[in-house]
Amino acid sequence: MTPRSLSDWLSYQERVHPRAMDFTLDRIRVVLERLGALRPTAKLVVVGGTNGKGSVTAYLDAILRASGRRVGLYTSPHLLRYNERIRIDGAEISDTELVALFERIEVARGEISLTFFEYATAAACLAFNEAELDVWVLEVGLGGRLDAINVLDADVAVITSIGLDHCDYLGTSLEAIGREKAGIFRPNRAAIFGSFAMPDSVAAEAARLGARLMALGVDFSFKRTAQGFVWTHGDTVCAGLPEPALIGPVQFENASTALAALDALGVLPSHPVIAQGLRSVSLPGRYQLLPGPVDWIFDVAHNPASVSALVATLTERPARGRRFFILGLLSDKDASAVTQVLGPVVGAGDDICAVTLSGERGRSGTALAELMRAQLQRAIGSAESVDAGCARAKEFACAGDQVVVFGSFLTVGAALAWHRLYCDLGN
Asked: Which helix (H) or strand (E) holds 325?
């Protein structure tokens, strides 16, 4: 029987292809060709990298929409609702629209099996193609060279950063990972690198492919000021820009990278429009602060580099009281490296609770707590679910304290849902 509801479709898509991750461009290319969505007429920005992809895509979307352009934004994974992955002019796609798209994709794919991510990519491309947009902003899911997004030719390709993550698929060194992620570059088109540490392999791939590489700290730069920052790219100088609405030192790098991409695309707007976009940008789960007597902070930092960025932000913004850390990591993440990076910001009176994530890639909170206890030589609590960890923190945290929930998207998504029920409503 043909699936009817969105939840039916998503359950069905998890079973269609024999492997959850199967990297090739062949399947998605044929399906998009059949759907007539393989060659968009809109400008196309593709954003890859290890950390910072979500932030850079959010800046691009906010600034482009502030300039009056119609924008399609495709990101993954989602925190609370699948619909978050596909937005048109800032609005999430509806269940009804998604179901209609999946029905058309099902007919078009015929004998071709698609992965869960390929269904989503096809749906985004089909929706954007028919919405007559000015710009598509697409976030790479994993890697770059063989990610489904790479079936499209980007006018501007962005790599935000290179770090150790998904090593089973991308390689165990920064050079190997950089090479894979640089596969989104195209001949004679702009390639933006958005952090200060660029592996040699990225530059080598840009040269091999004939892309026009521009790197932070070399071709464009920023300088923080008391009120915000100054951005420079060649002869172009944007002074007096406000501090981005997204919190943390790394956000100046991410905002600067987005501006470089817009400049390369030929659509960098006026100073007031850039400022409007920087002030209006929103991205749940990236140092998302929900203030109150007890401040709650949610961050999807789940690898050493992203946890380092979280630690830098926590250091810049000290708590008035104690901190209650809630951490949940999937089994394929380097928990030992994450613990090592976290250690220096954990005070003597702070509390850490490791929570269980279920599923095929899940990790026991008890096992994670044991690892952290041995490494940090301090008491580490555990809970059998994210909800239980949040309830524990709520019970013991006092006015002036902070609760910092971080780790997998599954951790942060569940914690945000819990907070909405038990804190936002005052329960």
From this structure: strand 323-328
